[in-house]
Every structure is written in structure tokens, then in C-alpha cells.
Automatic annotation (TrEMBL):
<dbReference type="GO" id="GO:0043139">
    <property type="term" value="F:5'-3' DNA helicase activity"/>
</dbReference>
<dbReference type="InterPro" id="IPR027417">
    <property type="entry name" value="P-loop_NTPase"/>
</dbReference>
<keyword id="KW-0547">Nucleotide-binding</keyword>
<dbReference type="Pfam" id="PF13307">
    <property type="entry name" value="Helicase_C_2"/>
</dbReference>
<keyword id="KW-0347">Helicase</keyword>
<dbReference type="GO" id="GO:0003676">
    <property type="term" value="F:nucleic acid binding"/>
</dbReference>
<feature type="domain" description="Helicase ATP-binding">
    <location>
        <begin position="9"/>
        <end position="300"/>
    </location>
</feature>
<dbReference type="GO" id="GO:0016818">
    <property type="term" value="F:hydrolase activity, acting on acid anhydrides, in phosphorus-containing anhydrides"/>
</dbReference>
<dbReference type="GO" id="GO:0005524">
    <property type="term" value="F:ATP binding"/>
</dbReference>
<keyword id="KW-0067">ATP-binding</keyword>
<dbReference type="GO" id="GO:0006139">
    <property type="term" value="P:nucleobase-containing compound metabolic process"/>
</dbReference>
<keyword id="KW-0378">Hydrolase</keyword>
<dbReference type="InterPro" id="IPR045028">
    <property type="entry name" value="DinG/Rad3-like"/>
</dbReference>
<dbReference type="InterPro" id="IPR014013">
    <property type="entry name" value="Helic_SF1/SF2_ATP-bd_DinG/Rad3"/>
</dbReference>
<dbReference type="InterPro" id="IPR006555">
    <property type="entry name" value="ATP-dep_Helicase_C"/>
</dbReference>
<protein>
    <recommendedName>
        <fullName>ATP-dependent helicase DinG</fullName>
        <ecNumber>5.6.2.3</ecNumber>
    </recommendedName>
</protein>
<comment type="similarity">
    <text>Belongs to the helicase family. DinG subfamily.</text>
</comment>
Length: 662
């Protein structure tokens, strides 16, 4: 048997790292889980080296048994990071130890690859011969209109697609020339509109099929949560057969699966789809289909911006009417024909039919609601009440699964995380217990290499008033300014709303004119983050995307301010529906849904402070409920083990000492 410990040691040596006990325990635990087929929930704190911790035993198994194992991480960006950094390191280590190099492949959703049919049929051929993309790009000035810039982007993408086809590449969007989403839509295709490899004139060259073939020939396949969701929802057709599954960043799994299973219906979608089919249906049916956009628009206007529960609601009636008309259109278009445009239009109508039917059904398993935005107007959404059943039946019942994250043990227990993904607490195995069925699981916390109590302080501002609905109090704003003054900037401000972030930024800019205060919305978030990293004295204020998406080690971030406990918004229809469902079943919906949601985000937010062993600083929680409310202890037990105080002077003095001021 291949020694996974030797592979791990070789990989750590290759990156000039040091052996970490938590990483070694993790590798041993993953190897055991793969051997005995028991699911594993593994909490591995920041700095553990999770990726190599699971890749070493996974690749050892691939060498020994020639099995295929899938790794799914939260986002395409993390998928790319694995592919470019951690996996090559691990493969080098495997080769050094065993003399064998397993094959790895990256697999993404269909729309992340260019479509030859769309790229080759999307515009007149003579345009390409008149001027090349580089010449066109030079001719289009920065002040050119959007249509000109879009044309230049599309032409560049089409040339790149042909180059990829000639060299038998995959035409992965990440490798494409710079482009906007609108331009990419001209060379890619929605999943539902794909003609299928057998019916597409370019099926033999299909990039998606090529990527899937690479995955079928690989022993390690790296994908993302969204494609994992599609695979679960469509009977295992998106991923190749595999003997085990590793889910990285597992704290995001439920949210990502929910998003993938959520549908949106708008009047604009109905109108665009109707116009696509006018050529192939009779005038009366075409007009009827077009009219449904106005019917839906009126129903949305008459709806409250809230969850829809009544079968007599205008939206439900409009969705039923749209469903019936769309069914007639699907029937009129018939089955697949030699006309590709007609086939694709029929698929688009079928998608409208499916969403309308789902809304009209108003199933107890779904949540339907109406929302509104300034740009797009009103929309109807339908999402699963929960995804635990889907995960239990389509993932855990099928293959041994390891879930790993820095935040899985909430409130001192794995119960909430296990329940959310469909594993019952009764199926948890203690040491020495034998599994009774395919849903048996273990929970292990391998700890963190960081000494949180020595490296950080959790300051809870007990003397401040609890958060209110009318914005932050003057005392809270003054507290923020004093803390940032003590830290001389170097602050990441995590706020529950954009309004609160902007209010705090305005106050601090006025009170601390010598310090640079960046606020989400001032520019692209990526640009703001780069500026924050480059300027240690700057502070960055923002909302949810900063709670989990910013990794800033060093003195750039020595103070993390959290304005309030991040409970779900009271107007979030899906979270409130989930809370009510738990209450109706006799449970505590507040603790199971709202407090668990808050605990996860608090752990992620507070975790922004310490990213390496040299980091020092303060997490300032400005919501006194963390120490005054009954649920406060549950939330605190989900946070890293910082030394805790409610004395603001201690926090200020600690920050001043870090700056050498005292």
C-alpha cells in the first residue's frame, strides 16, 4: 500500500513548508474514511494546509486501486487555485514517492466552455475576413459605443475559439481573451439549448465533450459545487463515475446547491423566448405567448415583495396560464428537427414551461417569492425549502464523502452542519462503533496551527446599545472611529448592510481625515481589495462578500470590526420559510436556522484576522448581544479561541501597542 504520509511529507518539503500535526491527522482521517466507506465531516482551521491534507491520501488511493475520486470546491476561482498550485505539488510528490503520476482533470459546467455551433453560426462570415480582431480592437477607441466594443470582443473570441479547435484545446473561458459576459454569451450556449453531440454539426469537435472525455480518463477530477449540484439533480449525468468524493469549503455547500436549484421567472425572459418561436408557430399562438409577458408583469405588480403561499395569488394564476400556453408552444414546435435554431428555441420554451409549472404547483417542498431591483424590475423566484434530501439521496447514498472546511463545528457541535446536508445526528459514529448503513459519519476537528488566545483579542462592546433599525447609533460610530484611530487604519469593517458600511465610512472620513477609508461601492471590489492590501494604513468597509472572500495576512489587517450579529434578514423569504418549517415540525427554528446562519458567518468573518502564525490583532464585535443574549454563548463557541474582553480600553491599548505607540 502506498504510504500517504510519505506523499504528504514530500509535498510539504517541495513547498519548503513544515510538518503540521493537524495536517497529518487530517491525512490519516481521510485515508481511514476512504478505506471504511464512512462519511467524514472534518474541521481544519486556517493554516492547516487542507488541500495537501486530503490530496495525499486521495492520490495514494488512486495509485493503489486506480480509482477515480472527485474533489469539489466552492467556486471556479478556488478550482483554478487547486489546479494551478496544490495539485501539481501533490502530483510531483506522488511521482517522487511512487514513480507513478496519476492523471488529473478539471471539469466545469457547460457554459464555461465555448460552443463551436454558437461561435460559428453567430455572425456573417464575411465580417471575419474583412478585418482581424486585433486591428478592430485597435480601431475601437475607449470612448466607442458599447455595440462597437462588443463587436470587437466577440470577433476576438471567435478567432480564439478557432485557434482552440485547431490545437484541440478545451476553449475554457478562463483562458479566453478579455471579454464581458455579453460577449461570452455569443460564443457559449445555455445547457438546455445544447443540440447534443449526436445532432450538432460540430459534435465531433465539441469542447464540452472533450473536457468530459479528459475527466473520464483521469483518476482525480476537480470540479465545483455548482456542477456537483447539477450532477445530483440530473441523475449523475454531469460527472464521470467515481468511487469517492471530497467536498472542500463545505460550509458553502448548502448555499451553492440551493442557488443551483433556484429558478427565476421574469416578463423579459418570457418575451424574449416568445419572440424566438414566432417563425414556427401560428400567429394566434405566438401572440398568446407574447401576451403572457404582460400577464406575468401585471401579476408581479399586484404581488407583495414577499413569499407567496396562497394558491389564489395573482402570480400563481399567471404562472399556471403561462405553463399552459408554453405547453402548447412546445407541442407545436415538435421534437428535434434538422433546424438547429428551432430545436434550441424549443428547449428555451421548455425551460419557461418547467419554471412556470414549478411556481404554479406551489409545492410544500418549494418556496416562491417576488423581489424587485432598480435595474431589472420585479422577478419571481422558486427555490427548494431545503436541499438535505437531495444531498442525502443523491450524494451520500451513492459514494463515501469527505466534507472539509475551517468552519463546520458550530456551537461546539457538528450536528447543525450534518443536519443541513442530510446526515442525521443518530448516524454519527463514535470510536469503536461499526457503521449500520451508508449514511454513517464521523466528525473530527483537527484544530489549527495558530495560537488564537495569544495572537488575537475578541472585544465585545457590551456598553454599546443593541443594534436598531434606524442605523448605527452615535456611540457605535464613535467606537468604530476610536478603534480605527488606535490601529492607524489597517481595518477590515464587516457590516450587515451596505447602508451601515456607508454610514460608518462617511463618519470615519469626517473624524479621521488623515486615514484612507475605502467602502464597497466606491469601485470594483477587486480593485478596492488590491488597494487595501497595498496600503497598510487603509481601511476597507463592506458587506457579505468581504466576510468570506478576503484573505489579507500581515499588518494590513490588524483590526476586524463586525457591526452586528449577521442573522438572516427578516425579509429573506427562503430563510424565514426554513425557520418556520423547523418550528412547525416542533423544533427551534431560530436556533437551527437563524443562529446557525449567524454562527457560520461570524466564524468566517472573525477568521479574517489571523491568516498566518505571525499575525496579531483584535476582532471588535460591536453587538453586545454576543455576551448578553441567551444564544450568545452558542455563537461565541463557534469563533476561534481568542482571549475575550468587554473592556474597550484594553482593545484600544492592544492596537496602540501593535503600532508601537505605547
Amino acid at each position: 500500500m502506498t504510504d500517504h504520509a510519505a506523499i504528504l511529507a514530500a509535498a510539504v518539503g517541495e513547498i519548503h513548508g513544515q510538518a503540521r500535526p493537524g495536517q497529518q491527522v487530517m491525512a490519516d482521517s481521510v485515508a481511514r474514511a476512504l478505506d471504511d466507506g464512512v462519511h467524514l465531516l472534518m474541521q481544519a482551521g486556517t493554516g492547516t494546509g487542507k488541500s495537501l491534507g486530503y490530496l495525499a491520501p486521495v492520490l495514494a488511493r488512486c495509485v493503489d486501486r486506480e480509482e477515480r475520486i472527485v474533489v469539489a470546491t466552492a467556486t471556479l476561482a478556488l478550482q483554478a487555485q487547486l489546479a494551478s498550485k496544490d495539485i501539481p505539488t501533490a502530483l510531483d510528490a506522488v511521482e517522487a514517492v511512487t514513480g507513478t503520476r496519476p492523471k488529473a482533470a478539471i471539469l466545469k459546467g457547460r457554459t464555461n466552455y465555448a460552443c463551436l455551433y454558437r461561435a460559428r453560426s453567430g455572425g456573417p462570415a464575411e465580417q471575419d475576413s474583412l478585418v482581424g480582431s486585433s486591428a478592430l480592437a485597435e480601431a475601437v477607441s475607449p470612448s466607442a459605443d458599447d455595440v462597437s466594443r462588443l463587436g470587437a470582443e466577440v470577433l476576438a473570441l471567435r478567432e480564439w475559439v478557432e485557434e482552440e479547435a485547431e490545437r484541440k484545446g478545451l476553449a475554457d473561458r478562463d483562458d479566453a481573451p478579455t471579454h464581458t459576459a455579453r460577449a461570452w454569451a455569443q460564443v457559449s450556449i445555455p445547457t438546455r439549448e445544447c443540440l447534443g453531440v449526436a445532432n450538432c454539426p460540430f459534435g465531433a469537435e465539441c469542447f464540452v465533450e472533450a473536457s468530459r472525455e479528459e475527466a473520464r480518463n483521469a483518476q482525480l477530477v476537480v470540479t465545483n459545487h455548482a456542477l456537483l449540484a447539477i450532477n445530483a439533480m440530473h441523475g449523475g449525468t454531469a460527472l464521470p463515475e467515481h468511487e469517492a468524493l471530497i467536498i472542500d469549503e463545505a460550509h458553502e455547500l448548502v448555499s451553492r446547491i440551493t442557488t443551483a436549484a433556484t429558478d427565476e421567472l421574469t416578463p423579459g425572459l418570457v418575451e424574449r423566448t416568445a419572440r424566438r418561436v414566432l417563425t414556427w408557430v401560428d400567429d394566434d399562438l405566438g401572440v398568446d405567448f407574447l401576451d403572457q409577458a404582460d400577464v406575468l408583469r401585471q401579476a408581479l405588480a399586484e404581488s407583495e415583495l414577499a413569499r407567496i403561499t396562497a394558491g389564489s395569488a395573482p402570480l400563481v394564476y399567471a404562472a399556471a396560464q403561462l405553463r399552459d400556453v408554453a405547453r402548447k408552444v412546445v407541442s407545436a414546435l415538435g421534437k428535434a428537427t434538422d433546424d438547429a435554431e428551432r430545436t434550441q428555441a424549443a428547449s428555451a420554451v421548455k425551460e419557461v414551461f418547467d419554471i412556470a409549472e414549478r411556481i404554479a404547483k406551489l409545492s410544500e417542498a418549494d418556496v416562491v417569492w417576488v423581489t424587485e431591483s432598480e435595474v431589472f424590475g420585479r422577478s419571481a423566484y422558486v427555490a427548494p425549502l431545503n436541499v438535505a434530501g437531495l444531498l442525502r439521496n443523491q450524494i451520500f447514498a451513492e459514494t463515501p464523502t469527505v466534507l472539509t472546511s475551517a468552519t463546520l463545528e458550530l456551537g461546539g457541535s457538528f450536528e447543525a452542519a450534518a443536519s443541513a446536508v442530510g446526515l442525521s445526528y443518530g448516524d454519527r459514529l463514535e470510536d469503536g462503533q461499526e457503521p449500520q448503513d451508508q449514511f454513517a459519519w464521523r466528525g473530527i476537528d483537527v484544530g489549527s496551527p495558530f495560537d488564537y488566545r495569544r495572537q488575537g483579542i475578541l472585544y465585545v462592546a457590551r456598553r454599546l446599545p443593541p443594534p436598531g433599525r434606524d442605523g448605527m447609533s452615535e456611540q457605535t460610530l464613535a467606537e468604530i472611529a476610536q478603534l480605527i484611530w488606535a490601529a492607524e487604519g489597517r481595518t477590515l469593517g464587516l457590516f450587515a448592510s451596505r447602508r451601515a458600511a456607508e454610514q460608518a465610512a462617511e463618519y470615519c472620513r469626517r473624524e479621521l481625515p488623515d486615514l484612507r477609508i475605502l467602502c464597497q461601492g466606491d469601485a470594483q471590489l477587486s480593485e478596492l481589495t488590491r488597494t487595501f492590501i497595498a496600503d497598510p494604513s487603509a481601511s476597507l468597509f463592506g458587506t457579505m462578500s468581504l466576510w468570506q472572500g478576503v484573505d489579507v495576512p500581515g499588518e494590513t489587517c490588524q483590526l476586524v470590526i463586525i457591526d452586528k450579529i449577521p442573522f438572516p434578514r427578516p425579509d429573506d423569504p427562503l430563510m424565514q420559510a426554513r425557520k418556520k418549517a423547523v418550528d412547525d415540525a416542533g423544533g427551534n427554528g431560530f436556533m437551527r436556522v437563524a443562529a446557525t446562519h449567524a454562527a457560520l458567518l461570524l466564524a468566517q468573518g472573525a477568521g479574517r484576522l489571523i491568516r498566518r502564525s505571525e499575525d496579531r490583532g483584535v476582532v471588535a464585535m460591536l453587538d453586545p448581544r454576543l455576551v448578553t443574549a441567551r444564544y450568545g454563548e452558542y455563537l461565541k463557541s463557534s469563533l476561534p479561541g481568542f482571549w475575550t474582553t468587554t473592556d474597550g480600553d484594553i482593545a484600544v491599548q492592544a492596537l496602540r501597542r501593535l503600532r508601537g505607540a505605547e
